[in-house]
Each structure stands twice: as C-alpha cells, then as structure tokens.
Amino acid sequence: MSKSIPTREDNYSEWYNEIVKRADLAEHSPVRGCMVIKPYGFAIWEKMQKALDDMFKETGHQNAYFPLFVPKSFLELEEQHAEGFAKECAVVTHYRLKSNPDGKGLIVDENSRLEEPLVVRPTSEAVIWHSYKNWIQSWRDLPVLINQWSNVVRWEMRTRLFLRTSEFLWQEGHTAHETEAEALEETGKMLGVYAEFVEQWMAVPVLQGVKTASERFAGAIDTYCIEALMQDGKALQAGTSHFLGQNFARSFDVKFVNKENELDYPWATSWGVSTRLIGALIMAHSDDKGLVLPPKLAPIQVVIVPIFRTDEDLAKINEKVEPLLAELKAKGIPYKYDDDDKYKPGYKFAEYELKGVPVRMAIGLRDLENGTIELARRDELSKQTLPFDGIVGHIESLLAEIQQNLYDRALSFREANTFSVDTWDAFKARIEQGGFVLAHWDGTDETEEKIKQETKATIRLIPLNSIEMAGKCVYSGKESAKRVVFARAY
Amino acid sequence: MSKSIPTREDNYSEWYNEIVKRADLAEHSPVRGCMVIKPYGFAIWEKMQKALDDMFKETGHQNAYFPLFVPKSFLELEEQHAEGFAKECAVVTHYRLKSNPDGKGLIVDENSRLEEPLVVRPTSEAVIWHSYKNWIQSWRDLPVLINQWSNVVRWEMRTRLFLRTSEFLWQEGHTAHETEAEALEETGKMLGVYAEFVEQWMAVPVLQGVKTASERFAGAIDTYCIEALMQDGKALQAGTSHFLGQNFARSFDVKFVNKENELDYPWATSWGVSTRLIGALIMAHSDDKGLVLPPKLAPIQVVIVPIFRTDEDLAKINEKVEPLLAELKAKGIPYKYDDDDKYKPGYKFAEYELKGVPVRMAIGLRDLENGTIELARRDELSKQTLPFDGIVGHIESLLAEIQQNLYDRALSFREANTFSVDTWDAFKARIEQGGFVLAHWDGTDETEEKIKQETKATIRLIPLNSIEMAGKCVYSGKESAKRVVFARAY
User: Fold this and answer.
1) Nearest CA in chain A to B25
2) Spatial CA neighbour of B54 closest among B147, B144, B141, B124
C-alpha cells in the first residue's frame, strides 16, 4: 500500500494491473502464460458461476464433464475448427518422466512417446461431438442440452491477467437439436442469458449482435456475441453463442432418425463465457482508489469496522453490534466484522476501498452515545452518519441502489461514447479517441481488413434488430444496408 | 434394459460396470484412460462438492485456482515427491500444431518445442508451494488455508470408471501453519471432515488411521486416511490427509519471520478426495437391481409416476398432485413428476430403480377415489399404499430413515466382515474371503511387502486411538504393539 495506484488517465494499463494486484485478485504464475486466481478473485468467480449455473439449469441444461485431452485426429475432423485452434495448442506427447541417468533430476522418458499426440482442450466441440455419436440415435434423444465448467488452454505469447492467459476457466455449453429453427432459438436464448447476466449481475450494459465472417468461431456458421465498453473506450467481448449448423454432426458422423423416420444430422450450438468476465468487471466500474464491485457479485457486501482503543471499548461495541450482525446473517447479506487489532481503522478503510466492498460502516464510542453509525458507499465514495436503529433495512435498499447506480453510470458512459460517423476522416479521428463507432460498411472482408490495418479497429458486431438504414461504406463508399459497430478491442 | 444385470455374487466387477452404465453415470471415452461423467453422475458429484465445499468454508478455508501445468523443474524440487509421480505424468512438450506439408491433417510443429517440458498436474503441491513463497513472509500471513477444485492427471494403463482413471476430478487442500502442532491439528481436522462427509452424507462408515511408510503420499511425513469396506469385501481408500512437515517449505525455500522475530519454515498439510468417492458410493449400497443412493446425495429424492390411459385421466391426476409438488418444492425436496407418455409405468419403475431414486410414488384413478398413493422405497424394495393427505410429512421422515438405514446396513456389513486373526494360516484363509482383517504386524517394510506378495493384502491403516495390546506379528512372530488393519483393496 506504499505507492499510490496510477490513475486511469495517466496509465490505464498499469492502473488495471495494480487493481488486480492490490485487490488481491490474481497474479502471474511462473508457468508461462498461466495465472493464479487468488481467494478474493476466485470468490468473485464463484459468485458468477453460481448465478450463471442457476440460469443454465433454469433453461433446462445439465452439467457434465468430458476429457481434458483431445486426440489430434479428433481435432482434425472439422477442418475449419482444426485450422482455427492448431496454432495455440499445448500438446502432450509423452506420459512418463524418468530419473536423469546423467545426473540429477528428471527427464522425459522417450519410451513413453504416445502413438497419437493429445491436445489439451482449447474448447471441447471435438471431444464432445465424438461422445454425442453414441448419445444420439433418435429424435427422442434430442435435444441434448449440456454444459461443462472447465479449464481450457490456448497458448498465448502475450498475456494479461484475466483478459488473456494461456489457461483460463470457463463454461462451455454444447447442444444438439432436431431442427435448424430449434438450434437457432437456443443460440439466441443463451445470448440472452449472457446479456441478462452481464447487465443484471455485473451491472455492465452490453450490445448484442452477430460477428462478421472473419471474427467467427472456427467451425461456426454464425457467432453471436455481447460486447461491453470499458472505461478506456475499448470494447470487450463478454460472451459468445455459436450457431454451428450441422458442421460438427457431419464431421463426427452423428446421425439420428427423425420423426419422419429418416436419417438426419442434428443441429448444434455452443456458447461460453470465461474468467475474462472478471477483467470486464474490473475495467467497467473501478476507479483510481481501487476495485468497485456491484453488490450482487461482491464476496463481502458490507464491512463493519469498530473504532476502539481498549478491549473494554471493543466489548461495548461488540455488544451493540451483535444483533446487527445476526440480522445481516439472517437476511443472507455477506458481511465482515473486522475487529482485528493488528491494523488501524484508516488502514482498514483503505484496504476495503481497494477491494471494492460496496458498503462500509464504522462505529465508535461516540456513535454508541448518539445511537448512530457511519456509513460509506464505495461507488460514490460518500459518507453519512445514520441512526443505528433500522440500519439493516437501509443497507438492503442501498445495496440495490448501488447495483442500479453502477449500471446506470456504465450505461451513461457507453451512451456518451457511442458515435455515428459518416466520413473516413471522422471515423479515424473518432476511433483514435475510443468508444463504439457506428458506421456503414460495404460487407466485404477486404474493407474490414483494411480498416483494421489502418485504425486497429475491428467490427465488434452487426447489431441485431436494428432498423435497416441504407448508406455508403465509410471506407469504400459502396452501398451498405445498415451500420455496424466498430471499436478497438481487448 | 434388455439383458439383466449380472448379480454381485456372479460377477462383482461386471455388476459394477453395468450399474455405472445403466444408471447413466459415466462412460469410457476414446481418449485413453479418461472418462466422460454423464449428467446424472455429475449431478451426484455436484451434491458432493456442495456439501464438502460448505464444510471446508465452515472450517475457515477459501478456494483458489493454480495452473494446470507444473514445470518439470518445480516437480524435481521435492525429491520424494518427484520420484512418486514421475512415472505417471502426462508431459506437454510443444505448443503448436501445423498443417501436414505431406498431406492432410495436422502434425506437431517441431519449432514449437518448449524449453522446459510441462507436466499436467498430478497434484499441486509443487506449483502451489512455489506461489506460497510470495504469499508467506511473516507469522501474520499464517495460517494459509486454501482449497482447489480441479482436474488432475495420473497416467494409468488399466482403468475403471470412477475408481481409477488417468484424469479425474478432485479437491486438494493446501495449508501452511506457524507450528508443527497447528499443522498436525489441521491434518486431523480435515480427516475428521472427510469421515463426517462419508458417514453422514454418503452413509458409508469408515475406519480412520495412519498409513504405513510404504503407502504414504510421496513427500509426506505422515498420511492419514479413511477406509471403507465395499460389498465384495475389498477396502477402498476414501480420502487422505497428509502431514507434510516442513518438506515442501524447505524444497521451495518458503520462510517466514515468526513471533520471536526469527526465520522459520512453515508447516504444511495437504488433503484430498476425488470422483473416486462416486465409485465407493456405488459399491457400498447398490444391489442387483441397480444403483441405491443415500437421499442426501440423490439428484432426485422422490419420483412421482402418474398411472393413466387418457389425457383426461392425466388431467385429473395432475390436479390432485399439483399441491403435493408445490409442497415438495417449498420444502426443497428434489423431485421429478414423470408424466411422459412415451414410456409405460413399468418401464419407468425399472428405470428409477436402476437410477437409485430413494422414494418412488405412483398414483392412478383408483388412488384418487380412495385418497391414497402408492409408495416404494428403493433401499428395501418395499411398497405400501398410504393416505394421500400428509404424504409429504411422511416422505420427509422416510428420507431421513432411508439415509440412516443405508448407514446402519453398511455398518452391520462391515462389522460382520471385520475379523481379528492371530495365526498366519487363519490370516491367509480370512483374506481370501474378504473383509477387514485386524492382525499384529512387526512394523517392518519387509514383512509388509511379503504379506502383500503372498496374499495381495495391504495394510490399509494403523488405527488411531486404538488400545495398545501387545502381541506377536502374524507373519514373523516378532513383537507387535497393536493390531493393524489389513485388506485387499481397490
């Protein structure tokens, strides 16, 4: 806590790194590209998992678990998919180490070479569709609605905690359906679940849309996505839901007898969100004092700090506070009563500010006399003294208010940073300053690629349900049916 | 459902495989040694995880996540540990595939060879203690009480679903303490948590004790364990808690300033249980009709099957049953109302019997007239007709009764299959027939090894807190301070 955190304005990237470090969320591991998720960061992930898992189950999905390893030959079966992931695969080639005959330590035992190399799953379509071949024979077996919580590995040279690491945690849904319409409905439904989670739980507004061909998941017909805007004006893809058509079914030879008694290929979807969401959460709300957490995902929603000098003082405060703690517990509000005497109140206040605890209360002898308690809210960094009686009721509504306030703030920010531009000069100038830029595009890969090369901006998505308003491509001047959303992105 | 299941008596091993398959718990994957945990099996694992995770948190532990990969050089640091795991390590040597220049498909890109091979974690002491070096500087940083839920890989040539697979799911606790006494207390506490979980939730009685040197975890000073008896008379190690002394702290150079302001090495423990527990659960309670589940771990505790011919009949039954379902839901009793018309009641009954649903109810038109409902309990395979009114109250107490009955039954079985023997002939004869055999042992590795070679029996544990009663070693005739527990084991 010695040095102060760099401000967002001074050095956004360093600010982010320092928040992750000082709020004790995660750290780099000496294992190339892998991170250690520390208890406080993991507690946030557990809250996210619980909320998402409940939503998946409510929409009829079940969890299962498939192997970590994907034989090379499985990965090869869907060509696009193989090509998309080949360059970032951790490959297991041996299954044994042995003592080094020339000295100390261990070496790879060359006699343990695998006949076929195994890839550590970068995603599980291949291994799961191989299983589905046995699971799906008849329309009665459909739909198959499976989700898996797991770790995956995609080798990365440049990593950033939560945002881009070689190993990350995620969930991956893999479904199979009788008809194209059902699979499309599922793709949309799960995109909706993600949007609801990110907006209602993370308090981060998102745009929904479909990716262009160049940004599509390897092996998908269409990739739908939600995109959020970070405080530095860069976009972050927060979740994707893929319509896979019959590609994987064909590649893995999965067929079923349909209601007309004919053989058909099932239609597939897959969808996922990852620990990357923690990065989004940090960047959407936090400030120069530290992490800011929406109450619904805060491991501790309320912290109470007693202000005391002697054990006698503390005993008096404890007595007063006890029924308050009992009430918080009864209402299921996660709290911490920090009566540790190793640290001073000022130190504790700074620590909980860093950790983004939404509501902080302090109570001292003066408060006991006055029947008051001091309450500080993290989102506004404001303080007030309130009557002690009835404080839990106040906290309950305050938590809901903070949740809403964070969302509203993020939404205002996004609205203030969303622009329509119509000329190439305006486009370049705007992209340079960040934000979502709505512009016409001629629909070609070439134009998309040139814009990316010249401005580092990518098409984040083609909006769903937007009104078609014809115009001219901002780059080529050719015809365009509607605006798409550009941004620089994480 | 065509063929019947082999009986336990005819072919215990095949019976086990068929239960796993027909109850839809798991299947072999084409990925060598790895299994697919199917939704019903995974739902049991989720129940286990939830119960254990709550117990870990109540005892002050927090979850975190460490990298999947362990650099070879980390593994080497604790010699015993390295030696213990070297022979079963999946080794990542490359980080990229590329298109095969000679034809179709992908090959390992030799230009992507890693400078240092990475081992897929067989357990995480090495990678975690490497992190603890940064986490622990002062006695104020202790204790560190961390748990991780993860997958691990230990290469196996012969595999059995849940019992022995190359990849499995588990939790691993890793703690660091100021003093030896505290670490020993933690080791014992977590052994107690495991015993409580296995007895209270899985309804399987366990013996608690300490392993002999030859059965110790690689790198531990002492390995404590719980052992359960399966229906074929073989023992199954259900959980282990290791006292690691200062071994890992020394190997990874983790030091802290103690309260006397001196540098010291922290004292460590680690402890784990895995998806193997599902194997134990199956083998402890199931019968020749299929799986038998203790209610506390059953994904569905109660199934209700309406008996109907016409939609009109079903509508009448639905109306009657609706408040019953609402009451089950309100009480948090997981139930399924199976009004599917694709299958007949008899088929459904057999299916739920196979899947071990503790309580099955059936209700038809006759029941509506009589105000009754038919209720069958899976543990006893018994049926009775009961008044419909007040049935939920009855179910609640019945579920508790079934939980207790399974435990009592397993305990009686264990008691009937635990023997004290005093001669080598009696020992050999007894071991041949299965069960726990309490016998004197002279305390030497040689005797232990010879007994194992001659009878395939191992010392499962040296009991804790048993009364010391001197005797003569059953094999060597030498002095022995107390009996130890022998058995053939999974």
Assistant:
1) A64
2) B147
Provide ipTM, 2 decimals.
0.96
Which runs of E-coded beta strand occur in B252-301? Answer: 256-257, 263-264, 267-274
Contacts of B75 in chain A (CB under 8 A): 97, 106
* CATH code, domain with A341: 3.40.50.800
Domain residues for A185?
12-66+136-285
Q: Please answer yes or no on whether B42 and A64 come within 8 Å at the CB atom.
A: yes
| Interface touch A97/B108, C-beta < 8 Å | no
Burial zone of B169 (CB within 10 Å; 0-12 exposed, 13-18 middle, 19+ buried): buried
Q: What is the pTM of this model?
A: 0.96
How many whole angstroms separate alpha carbon B129 and alpha carbon B152?
Answer: 17
Inter-chain contact B87–A64, Cβ cutoff 8 Å? Answer: no
Judge whether A91 lies within some domain: no
- Among the partner-chain residues A29, A71, A97, the one whose CB lies closest to the CB of B31 is A71
Ordered per-residue pLDDT tens for chain A, 490 residues: 457 889 999 999 999 999 999 999 999 998 888 999 999 999 999 999 999 999 999 999 999 999 999 999 999 998 888 889 999 999 999 999 999 988 888 999 999 999 999 999 999 999 999 999 999 999 999 999 999 999 999 999 889 999 999 999 999 999 999 999 999 999 999 999 999 999 999 999 999 999 999 999 999 999 999 999 999 999 999 999 999 999 999 999 999 999 999 999 999 999 999 999 999 999 999 999 999 999 999 999 999 999 999 999 999 999 999 999 999 999 999 999 999 988 999 999 999 999 999 999 999 999 999 999 999 999 999 999 999 999 999 999 999 999 999 999 999 999 999 999 999 999 999 999 999 999 999 999 999 999 999 999 999 999 987 777 889 999 999 999 899 999 999 9
Query: Contact B97/A119, CB-based, under 8 Å?
Result: yes
Lookup: tokens for B313: 């009949």
**B343 and B433 fall within a common domain:** no
Residue A432 belongs to domain with CATH number? 3.30.110.30
Task: Look at the block and give the residue holding tokens 């956004």.
Answer: A12
